């Protein structure tokens, strides 16, 4: 197997860090396509590093039954054209309103298979599904259907759609926390042999609940990666810390970014 690539979310802090340390990452993960200046930046970066494409260029969920009508094909085609990726990754989830009735797992599998085929038809790329989180009810918040984060269902979804796995370890930590089991135990029930990429970020306790906040990865996250990585054929490990746009303001300090990347680089070297 070729050496695994280390990638990180595209951010201006990362770009600045790359100028002084070109080898700090092997690739750059891109997912925001709503501003012309981002496109210009991606085109410049593409001349230096491979780009890893995450998402469809906007917040469209698969499996809704209306995906084909809501999909912005032009945005997706532009994202693929600019990034020139070797695959495209999307979230495996099923958002349900608090008053809504969820579709059955079987029905969602049927919809996902149809939607994935449409993505392949438009992009000509393999599709990789990212595991989602298990959450508890919070007033006024749409929630992911519990079965969508079940390890068995994720395996069925990959088989039904002919896709591979994007293993988000923060999502796995959150799901395991809600299930009351060790994160490594939950992760090992996932189809690790189909892993193409791994996402790293730090979850955080908010009002007593572990949630997806993309803060700095802590020791438990790095320990989990070191334990799980050898069991996967993952080609890329991506740090999802920092990014473009107001959502990431104050969450992209270069020193914190660099600290995590160096630690990830060491883990990749240790597990080759």
Question: Top keywords for this entry?
Answer:
globular; single chain; eight-stranded parallel beta barrel; TIM Barrel; 12 strands; 10 helices; alpha/beta; two-stranded antiparallel ribbon; 272 residues
Q: Would you write up a description of this structure?
A:
The chain is of the alpha/beta class and 272 residues long. The protein has a single domain, classed as Alpha-Beta Barrel (TIM Barrel). An eight-stranded parallel β-barrel has the order 1-2-3-4-6-8-9-12, surrounded by six helices. Strands 5-7 form a two-stranded antiparallel ribbon. A hairpin with a 2-residue loop joins strand 10 and strand 11. The chain is globular, with a radius of gyration of 18 Å. The mean pLDDT is 93.
Which secondary structure elements does this structure contain, and how are they paired or packed?
Layout: E1 5-9, H1 12-20, E2 27-30, H2 36-46, E3 51-54, H3 67-70, H4 73-83, E4 88-92, E5 95-96, H5 105-123, E6 127-131, E7 143-144, H6 151-161, E8 164-168, H7 169-179, H8 183-187, E9 195-200, E10 202-206, E11 209-215, H9 219-228, E12 236-239, H10 254-270
Helix pairs in contact: 5-6
- Tell me the series of helices and strands, N- to C-terminal: EHEHEHHEEHEEHEHHEEEHEH
Largest beta-sheet details: 8 strands, parallel, barrel
The appropriate CATH architecture is: Alpha-Beta Barrel
What is the number of domains? 1
CA distance, first residue to last residue: 9 Å
The CATH homologous superfamily corresponds to Divalent-metal-dependent TIM barrel enzymes
Calculate Rg over CA atoms: 18 Å
